[in-house]
Amino acid sequence: MSGPGGVNAAVDGLVSRYGLPPGAAEALLALTDLLAHEEHAPSAVRAPSAAVDVHLADSLVALELLEAGSVGTIVDLGSGAGFPGLPLAIALPGARFTLLEANARRAAFLRRAVAATGVRAVDVVNARAEEWSAGLAACDLAVVRALAPLPVVLEYAAPLLRVGGAVIAWRGRPDPEAESAGARAADELGLQVLPPRRVYPYAGAEHRYLHLMSKVRETPARFPRRPGMALKRPLGGVPGRRAAR
Length: 245
Prior knowledge:
Strand content: 15-25%
Order of helices and strands: HHHEHEHEEHEHEEEH
Number of strands: 8
Radius of gyration: 17 Å
């Protein structure tokens, strides 16, 4: 894939693959254009030809786990440059999204990205997950890509979910030790671990898995812990490895 024509065709392919709504192609292309031309865009992958795969396709593959109309309120934890949250917001115009980002400069970029894509029902919140009190038990789904080890991700997500909600975590090559620690953390947080699903977001993608956990009971009141504790003293007994980007 090279040049604008190749990028356009690749985006059209994503629209067809996932049955995206009218205007989705234009919004996705606007996002790749912003990444390419904004000097301080918070991503190492900025060329549109690469971003279509690494960012857009990799984000949209989560649609394979979701039923149309099944999710109302979604939070993207540590949204960074807007992935996976913004492509999913483009794909799911009936949902309400929060892009949660602790870094102020990245949050400012996210606001520009929301404006550039024209997506509605998307809020950008500049806060740590542990300090976002307005989000406690308010979300149906949390999505998390390339943020932290699995036990840490689950501790960030669980307090924000309603019972019956779920978290989807993007992971790389299977790591039994980290996954066992994640399962122990999930149990402590009121989450039920479902089998990881291997996904193929684009040709040549290797070792891409989506980990799905559902919230089956209330998270204990001691969560969230104060900022930094999830990383300093992770649940599950064994620190996991950082997610693959």
